[in-house]
Structures are given as structure tokens and as C-alpha cells.
Write a structure and sequence with these properties.
Layout: E1 4-7, H1 12-15, E2 23-32, H2 35-46, E3 59-61, H3 86-94, E4 99-102, H4 108-116, E5 120-123, H5 129-133, E6 136-143, E7 152-166
Parallel strand pairs: 1-2, 2-3, 3-4, 4-5
Antiparallel strand pairs: 2-7, 5-7, 6-7
Helix pairs in contact: 3-4
């Protein structure tokens, strides 16, 4: 199977053409955010405050990178288990988030939200954080810097390898 190069942001028209099992190379901007950042997103929304990032047609990578070494832009940045963010995901998809990147299965509620909002769930290889960091051409903290590696980062990726795990129709590679 040939990998498809996808230029971000990921519009709804582009998402609905992707199928579970498609192998992609992402190019462009993605956000990195883990558990603590998601809890802050949720708290802000509960207080009717705006989020510090634009969700519309963007992707969130569940990752907490390590500090950059002397020759890198970012340290190891492998995926975090996605299920830990399931309680926050549906709300963010409703707000326009194109999808998420992580590892592992998702809850039925998240699968239903993916279908409803024509979103997508992508997975990348766990245990390959050092390799994945080489696909990140730029990285900067956007907000919540006090969270350290769980701060929200903006990454510029080139040929970042992912697989469509759950497509916009709810089809899954896990079944």
C-alpha cells in the first residue's frame, strides 16, 4: 500500500475520503496535548472561556515530548494511550477538531462522536518516540507552560507517519 501525503489542516472533505487502514504521511501543523492540558481545556469550556488553540480542522496528538537534545528541535515524542482522553474528546470534536493522534482503542462514545462530526482517529507507532521526533521540523509551547511536558505544543511535521484507525464512518482497524 502506498502512503498518502496529507497537507494539514485536515478539512471535512479530506477526512471523509480517508478509510480505516489508510497509511498517511502528515505535513503541516498539529497540536500536542495530554491529560493535564485536556483537563484545563475542559475547565475553560465549563467557565465559558475560549480555548487557547484553534480546533477547527486541526489535529491533537496525544504526546508529552521530552526536552530537545543538543541537535534536535524536540526530544522523544511517542504517542500516549488515547483512551485516557476519551472523556474530553467528544466535546472537542463537536467544536470542530478534525481528529486525534495517539495509540490504542477508543470508547464507543468517542467512535459515535467521530461518526457524528465526520472526524478521524489516527494512530502512530508506540515505542518509536525518537524516530517520530525526527519528523518534527519545528516545536514551540503554545500555552500551559507550567505543565512541563504536558504543556500544549505546536508542532510542524513533515512526513509524520500515521494510520487511520477509525474513519469518519466509524470503521475501525481494531475490529
Amino acid at each position: 500500500m502506498t502512503m498518502k501525503r496529507i497537507h494539514l489542516p485536515l478539512t471535512k472533505d479530506a477526512r471523509i475520503k480517508l478509510r480505516a487502514g489508510d497509511e498517511l504521511l502528515l505535513c503541516g501543523k498539529i497540536y500536542a496535548a495530554r491529560d493535564a492540558a485536556h483537563k484545563r481545556f475542559d475547565n475553560a469550556l465549563n467557565k465559558k472561556q475560549p480555548l487557547p488553540i484553534d480546533l477547527n480542522n486541526n489535529l491533537i496528538y496525544y504526546c508529552g515530548p521530552t526536552p530537545a537534545g543538543p541537535s534536535g528541535k524536540i526530544g522523544s515524542c511517542g504517542p500516549t494511550t488515547s483512551k485516557r482522553m476519551d472523556g474530553f474528546t467528544s466535546r472537542l470534536l463537536k467544536m470542530g477538531l478534525a481528529g486525534t493522534i495517539g495509540k490504542g482503542r477508543r470508547s464507543q462514545d468517542v467512535i459515535e462522536a467521530i461518526k457524528k462530526y465526520k472526524a478521524i482517529y489516527l494512530v502512530t507507532v508506540g515505542g518509536a518516540g525518537a524516530y517520530l521526533s525526527k519528523r518534527i521540523q519545528g516545536a514551540k509551547i503554545i500555552t500551559y507552560s507550567d505543565l512541563g511536558p504536558e504543556a500544549v505544543y505546536e508542532f510542524y511535521v513533515e512526513d509524520f507517519p500515521v494510520t487511520v484507525a477509525i474513519d469518519s464512518t466509524g470503521r475501525s482497524i481494531f475490529k
